Known about the structure:
Number of helices: 8
Structural class: alpha+beta
Number of strands: 15
CATH superfamily of the largest domain: D-amino Acid Aminotransferase, subunit A, domain 2
Order of helices and strands: EEHEEHHEEHEHEEEEHEHEEEH
CATH architecture of the largest domain: Alpha-Beta Barrel
CATH class of the largest domain: Alpha Beta
Mean pLDDT: 95
Largest sheet: 9 strands, mixed
Amino acid sequence: MNMNNQGTSKFRHAVRNLSVIPLKDAVLPVSVREVFFNFSVYESIKVVEGIPVFLKDHLERLLESAERLEISHSFSPEDISRMIYLLILTDSVTAATFRVQLIGGLVPMLFIFPQELPVYPNTYYREGVSVITYEGERIIPEVKSNSLLLNYLAQREAEKKQALEALFIDRNGCAVEGTKSNFFAISGNRLITPGKRILAGVTRKYILKSAEIMGMEIVFKDPPLDEILKLQFDELFISSTSMGAMPISRINTVLLKNDFTKCRELHRRVRKLEHDYVCETRNELKESQK
């Protein structure tokens, strides 16, 4: 199983365990039981100007997911952080998405490899994007595991219908999360988002923090699909590491209200937090090298 894919030609190296290797050698043995059964967890970390954004948050979630699945390993946050920075230095990476994958088993394996950082047109943030709905619930959704068949099928269906994302609809008829995003609704000054049985995104954390600063009331609730389609919310949006806060203008064939005022402000604030993090981290690195 080769982790290399299209769009990574400018990247030449990866990390296997605690060693830098050629990217072409970042492969998994398919005969290993844990590989075959996808007994693994992962993180996607945004690199901006050579700085991995919100690195501590991502590594904490990675190791929490591993602990939840009882994946035993000896890799510390410091080990993984050191290898990420070494990989950035080795290939002079300025912008990328770093995938960190931890595979369980008697001999656990850690891989870190770069991919292109998704870039979204400004029109998406001005006009909103289309999403579809897809019935299904992820296995142990609180864990960022590599059990991604449902995500793959839902995303494939979204692509067929020229939509950016697919929202999972659970057994209760509620929209809970996307294949690669968290889901939010806004009603007046209330920010509504599922609070249980979802993957708590890192960007979601900073959206909630920004909403609190804006004086918004945060309500943890699964938005019912029938209320969404009846246009009972002022704004809808999704969030992820790469996209920030992305407004939704269409679900399936239903056109939604085009008032993205609060979503745009939340997006601006999250991007500002990312920028501040990059600047502060760069300054800390300079100080440590003196």
